[in-house]
Amino acid sequence: MKILNLYAGIGGNRKLWGDEHEVTAVENNPEILSIYESFFPEDKTILGDAHQYLLNHFQEFDFIWSSPPCPTHSRVRKQLAFRRNKDGEKYLQNKPVFPDMRLYQEIIFLQGYFKGFWIVENVISYYEPLIKPQKIARHFIWSNFKIKPIEIKGATHQATIKEMQNHKGFDISQFKLKHRKDTILRNCVDSNLALHILNCALNKSEEQKTF
């Protein structure tokens, strides 16, 4: 399959897909993209805006995976909006922001225009989702094919970098980064979940060929 991997990060979802597919990865952070390239040197990589790339190139692919930015939708952000200092005074920890609506733009766009298989992945939101997703582990998944249930054990939000590296299967200790390594690792989609989703799409594709 020709796969488009949007908001690729360091490739958590990509890790177990193997080399039989033609993968194009789009990431807007050059530092993070360079790590992706070190792990997946055979993939085509694009440094740029994944949202715009989807609009311009969606017809070129058989399968599209999109993981738009999740912080503005996260329950963690809402839970940590207010804290108290040692004197008991309440202060703002995370400034309230509008949810990033690229998430729903891409779902609606793919529903309306894309003829291949697609999934959009995000966190479980602090609000009732505007378009009903499938809930799998700690994720909301929107797709145009059925994803079979699967149990995925996720790393805790408070895990150490070493624990997250072991859980995600990425050792990034050799990289000198400006960005926080725990955040980079935390943003990786579980590779077993991603492989399961891709296999569901491949199985659906084989079913369609029999008719």
The rounded Rg comes to: 18 Å
User: What is the multimeric organization of the chains shown?
Assistant: single chain
Task: Kindly name the structural category.
Answer: alpha/beta
| CATH architectural name | 3-Layer(aba) Sandwich
Average pLDDT across residues?
89
- The DSSP helix count reads 7
Strand content: 15-25%
Integer tally of domains: 1
CATH-defined fold name: Rossmann fold
Shape: globular
How far apart the termini lie comes to: 19 Å
Enumerate the spans where pLDDT stays under 50 for 5 or more consecutive residues: none
Topology summary:
Elements: E1 2-6, E2 22-27, H1 30-39, E3 44-47, H2 50-57, E4 63-66, H3 75-79, E5 82-84, E6 90-92, H4 102-113, E7 117-123, E8 134-136, E9 139-143, H5 161-168, H6 181-186, H7 191-209
Parallel strand pairs: 1-2, 1-4, 2-3, 4-7
Antiparallel strand pairs: 5-6, 7-9, 8-9
